[in-house]
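Worked example 2:
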Amino acid sequence: MSQRLLIVDDEESILTLLQFNLEQGGFHVTTAMDGKTALEKACSNYYDLIILDLMLPEMDGLEVCKQLRQNKVLTPILMLTAKDDEFDKVLGLELGADDYLTKPFSPREVVARVRAILRRTQTTEKPVESSTLSNKIVIGDVEIFPENYEVFLNGSQLELTPKEFELLLYLANHKGRVLTRDQLLNAVWNYEFVGDTRIVDVHVSHLRDKIEPNTKKPVYIKTIRGLGYKMEIPNKNE
């Protein structure tokens, strides 16, 4: 069964080019040319991935991304931007986008990026009846079920984006080890971001918001100044 993509861009030439190349790659493609229509389609239909342009009429890509996450739509989002502005990229990630590409880009690059994201998230497509104990990772009050893409804190399930889950899982699998931002970038995102390690900091911040009792004094994901991050079992005395 073909994986379903929603492509959102107000430039018809780009939309047509992306649709053609992704359909040639075996994907089922739906399109939208404004943010309001994109939001309606994404909330009422299932998609494996959304390619979302930043600059859109009716509602811009940042607002679409924000509202999707607020509506608990956790579909991976690849954001497209014509700007080479660090602020826009980081803000998109902070609002819940999983990845971004800066225009101009080649259709081949987009297809490769889409495949990479879907490979990392394909586990979520497998139907799971309930959480099992197999391969469960427990760190303090956090329980991670890698096969199910599920995380529980004090028995309550957390809603993580696929990228947040992958980052948490990698940190947990390397518990007690200091991991540099470059290591995390290469391991979790699977390709070079040309030294743009801010993407790691943004996702660590998201995780801390969801698992830390006090984000100002994190007990799970520690910052190792000048090096990177380390995940630890919380010390009850902290």
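Residues 137-231 form a domain with the Arc Repressor Mutant, subunit A fold (CATH 1.10.10.10). DSSP finds eight helices and twelve strands in the chain.
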